[in-house]
Design brief:
It is a single chain. By secondary structure, the protein is mainly alpha-helical. It contains 8 helices and 2 strands. Strands 1-2 form a two-stranded antiparallel ribbon. The longest helix has 23 residues. The relative contact order is 0.14.
Amino acid sequence: MPPAPGQEEPMKRMVKIVNALLASPDVEPFREPVDWRGLELYDYPKVITKMMDLGTIKRRLERGQYSTAHQVAEDIRLVWNNCMTYNADGSDFWLLAKSFLRRFEDRYRKVRNEFDVGEDLEDDEDADDPRDGKSPASSTSGPSKSTPSSHAGAGASGGGGAALSKKESFAASSSSTTVAPASTSASLDVRAKFGANLFLLSGVELGWVMTELELKCPHVLESWGQGKIEINVDEIPQDIFARLEKYVHGLVKETIVPSEELMEPEVPKKKKRKST
């Protein structure tokens, strides 16, 4: 279907957003549909009744199967919401999906502020929407929270290179593709700690980090007006991140007082009175 009247420019912006998401190194688990049969996640289609992934969204965009930017946004949200519905709260995949959802909403908000994204346009093909394929229609989240799957498989790894134990859910709502192991890709915890440590740096030290990012990977910096700049830590390339993380860790380590130095102050001893 062609874009609805007035949706040409918003749709171009959505194509850019989808391409940017697909270019992110941590998005590997969300590129293609979950291979729930191969992963033996037999409860997955019961919990997630409307599956979605970024690869499917890109193909639908190329085939003209969206008429509004709002429809594209709903499917992108579905990718993250499916992941957060199926996987255990606080798991690596849950945190990764939450991070992507936040970043997407930040970018989509700019599109909504600039254009009419078609939220008020009624969809006359609700029941027979070609975007749905064979998947039954449903809300953007599954009917219930799944208990953590026991079919993760030994050696499986997910978003950000964090290996999952057999007690954690494996499906990231999109793909069974294995990404780089933790030895070559920083885990979500490491990147989160790096982001927190940035607040402990002095102005000069933080300025050096910002300069390096601006020179090596300016796409991770996003201006928010009034001089505010956000660093998308998850998007920093691994080789650059490793060097910056080592630099920041060294600075923060120097500011931490060792526990053995945190001794209680010596209490002065009472002087004995001299006998007269």
